[in-house]
Model the fold of this input.
Amino acid sequence: MNKLFILLGPTASGKSDLSIKLAKDFPFEIINADLYSIYRGLDIGTAKPSKRDMDITKHYLVDNIDPNMKYNVSMFCSDVSHCINTIYMRNKVPLIVGGSMMYVHQLINGLTHEYSISESDRKVISYIKEVYTDQTIYDSLQGDRKIFLDNINPNDSYRIEKLLERLISPQNNEKHYKGLKNMCDINIYTMFIDVQDREYLRENILIRTKKMIQQGLIKEVQNLIIRYNLTRDTQSMRAIGYRETIDYLENKIDLKALTDTIYLSTRQLAKRQLTWKNKFEINLNLSYPDINYNNLSKFISESL
Done:
């Protein structure tokens, strides 16, 4: 049986550093499961692994696509599956690390629906979006009882586009992703960093927020917007730290408010990430911030 390990936990809980340490002691290669780290150029705000860390340990799904491109859970599942096979061919063990809980949950359990978006479909959708406003598209679909619009705001450009994708692109049942747990040749071991001292985590989040701004987050966002012609509606710019920085660049908030809003948004994200714990089958709980590395090493050694 092939072995596969997953390390989950809230933001700022030390997942990246711990994974690097594990990769030095065990035959791991790391698959990134933090959605926004897949974008090139989103370095400071995502706390992406350093070039040195990535030189030491092979990382997958980091810096794979430009920030003006779109990415979804179907693409993630497909990409991870490819990475897993590549790692096995290299006689290594996959270690999936991240905090994009919904993506990892569907990676393990499978997708409830999956759509095959062809290039011609994308061109049709782009044309519709160029010719018609989101409100016009929304209004034109209201008369169809088969289309549910209750949870969609007519001003939400992203949701309107996702709706068009579902309507225009056919469901792809043949390529439906079944999930890792339904693959009979893989044993999955899931580790979760739980937080006993929430105040310590909050302090760590604040320190990290201030450090990101000191390291040049504002300049990073400014350069990305110019280079790739990004807007606040671009998927990559919805990442925490980036959307708030756009507000700062548009003079909607000052520097103190920028720090405060990033800090608050990150705290809220960490809280949501922790609520996902009960949705996973956890094989080993790790206690933050005092992670017992000896127990963790013993668990991995026995599992391998």
